[in-house]
Amino acid sequence: xxxxxxxxxxxxxxxxxxxxxxxxxxxxxxxxxxxxxxxxxxxxxxxxxxxxxxxxxxxxxxxxxxxxxxxxxxxxxxxxxxxxxxxxxxxxxxxxxxxxxxxxxxxxxxxxxxxxxxxxxxxxxxxxxxxxxxxxxxxxxxxxxxxxxxxxxxxxxxxxxxxxxxxxxxxxxxxxxxxxxxxxxxxxxxxxxxxxxxxxxxxxxxxxxxxxxxxxxxxxx
Length: 221
Description:
- The chain has helices at about 1-5, 10-20, 30-40, 45-50, 55-65, 75-80, 85-100, 105-110, 115-130, 140-155, 160-175, 180-190, 200-210.
- The chain is an all-alpha fold.
- The protein has two domains: about 1-65, no CATH class; about 75-215, no CATH class.
- Helix 7 (about 85-100) crosses helix 9.
- The longest helix has 17 residues, at about 115-130.
- It is globular.
């Protein structure tokens, strides 16, 4: 924590606060967090200790160094409840949950949560799973049904949840070849009033690059 504090930058902190990151935090640039990550690599215990300081910089670092496969359901439930900053609920927790043995199960639970940050974490975890896992390890019919669910519910969802739903449409269309047409069809039907990124444009860019269905090795950044 002393090292993190030494990297704190008032201007970075100001920017993070404007983007939905909540106090306490020092305002550490991601490049400094990655320098620490390279030295530590993975550390299950330290990740949990850092996360439960409730300092946003420490929580983000926790996600980078977490040993995802060692995370328990109880760990992940505690993490998602505490993830009230946007960068933690939509980056840190989904990274770790998607890499754990419980990602799909918990994501399907979280998308039903009343708390906006937990629902957003659920949808983002699902996006991470489709980006990482081979299609043979995914429940394709359920994922397809989620596109229909989004079509019906996105206009009434809360802001962060709506954004995460839109990202899921992009992820499903980009990383699952058999769902590209379904994702584009869903994107065409949803309202544009919410001023969300155009999912069709993002998916078509992947089509043009020939990267549809190409999975990621990691989603941590």
